[in-house]
Amino acid sequence: MDPSEVEFLAEKEFVKIIPNFSLDKIYLIGGDLGPFNPGLTADVPVWLALNLKQRQKCRILPPEWMDVEKLEEMREFERKEDAFTPAPSPYYMELTKLLLNHASDNIPKADEIRTLVKDIWDTRVAKLRLSADSFIRQQEAHAQLDNLTLMEINTIREFLLDSLNCMYKLRSNLQPGATKGQFADY
Amino acid sequence: MSDALSEDGSDIHHDDSQEDVMTPAELIARLEQAWLNEKFSPELLENRSEVVECVMEQLTHMEANLQRVKKGDAKAGFHRMEMDRIRFVLSSYLRSRLQKIEKYFPHVLEREKSLVEGQPSLLSPEEFAFAKEYYTNTETYLKAVALKRMPPNLQAVDMLKAVPEPCLDSFVFLRVKERQENVLIEPETDEQRDFVVDLEEGSQHLMRYRIVAPLVSSGAVQLI
Fold it and tell me: Residue B113: which of B147, B54, B149, B159 has the closest Cα?
């Protein structure tokens, strides 16, 4: 999956905006939004919020987790634990990038937040590399990865799945009588 | 003055052959689930032509509404953006399926042939026609380019053997939607034992596709 497709999924998450226009309810295929009144918060999906922001029709409010103290705590927690701790949001990386690129004027301490999120990401990806390595080495057949976000899974997806499949092919060819027919070579 | 766009899209319910009526939001969610499952599964999944048709219906209805509205209406922009997103998911879904059909065409046609009465079909009528044409074209091409120049007793090619099968033992990532108990995981090597895991709702796992294939078709797990 392309990272832009993960971002596509992340854009479905809801975020609060303060519009500067008024519009009555809109009935999208995916659900109803609005009505919009200037100065009153409204919940909209990120793809719409970004479009409105670019047309200077709203202010975007940072999500709850996008706060310096909270992120600092999470970063320390992540560094302390060996296992994966719950992520700030299932799409924290994508939302940070989208919101800070398009709406950094609406988000207090944007630079610090960028650094904190990057630190959290780096720690998690390092853990991911270690656990992928041990998964392959010990030829495990199953792993539970509850706290991983889609972007992290996607980072390692191609490499991990390809190597696991290669190893499986090599192993199953060693077994006598393996006549399952050829496997697809990508 | 009634706004053409405020005709509630949820008036259109899909209710011809299914017992439950789906709202458009549920329909789009189903489409996205089918899209992700098809993208990540090594084999071609059951076709969801009812979802595809309903989504096309919704899109054409919305497009018709938008034609009737005067240009520059604020809401039209929002609707168009949403429609573009839905169209992207739909085309990506259909493209995934076509890629798999092209890759595994003899096996796909074989599976379709061996379906029992009452089992849902693997291919939509258009996909079936496409697969058969692709088969015929490939056969003709091989004959014309190489086979007819071979000695007469070597001129046959068994497509089922010539084209590799999808590898159902590939690993996949999945998220559990309905709790499953006692899922058996067979070991890779002889030294390891079989073991069972319980799949808790909302948890994410990495395991071989073969183990969860029936759960993917029933919707109990979602490939991610």
Answer: B159
Tokens read off for A73: 């705590």
Per the CB < 8 A criterion, the answer to whether B215 and B45 are in contact is no
Q: Which residues contact A89 (CB under 8 A, 6 or more apart)?
A: A13, A63, A65, A95, A149
Q: Which residue has the tokens 């052959």?
A: B17
pLDDT at B99 (0 to 100): 95
Contacts of A35 in chain B (CB under 8 A): none
Confidence category of residue B188, pLDDT binned at 50, 70, 90: low
Q: B58 in contact with A at a CB cutoff of 8 Å? A: yes
Contacts of A168 in chain B (CB under 8 A): 167, 169-170, 188
How far apart are the C-alpha atoms of A145 and A135, rounded to whole Å? 12
Could you report the per-residue pLDDT of B67-105, keeping only the tens digit for each? Answer: 888 776 778 889 999 999 999 999 999 999 999 999 999
Give the Cβ contact number of residue A172 at 10 Å.
14
Q: How many helices and strands in chain A, by DSSP H and E?
A: 6, 6
Contacts with A, B 129-148, CB within 8 Å: none
| Encoded tokens for B17 | 């052959």
Alpha helices in chain B (DSSP H): 24-40, 49-68, 74-103, 105-113, 125-145, 159-162, 209-218
Q: What is the CA radius of gyration of chain A?
A: 21
pLDDT digits (tens, 9 = 90+) for B50-74: 999 999 999 999 999 888 887 767 7
pLDDT of residue B149: 87
- The Cα–Cα gap between A55 and A83 comes to 43
Touching A: B residues 60-119, CB under 8 Å: 62, 74-75, 77-79, 81-83, 85-86, 88, 92, 103-104
Reported as a single tens digit per residue, the pLDDT across A53-112 is 999 999 999 999 999 999 999 999 999 999 999 999 999 999 999 999 999 999 999 999
Task: Give the SS3 label for residue A45.
Answer: strand
Task: Give me B72's structure tokens.
Answer: 């520059």
Give the nearest partner residue to B58 out of A29, A51, A153, using CB atoms: A29
Closest partner residue to B9 (CB to CB) among A24, A29, A146 is A29
pLDDT classification of B190: cutoffs 50, 70, 90 = low
Q: Look up the pTM and report it.
A: 0.89
Tokens of A57: 């029709």
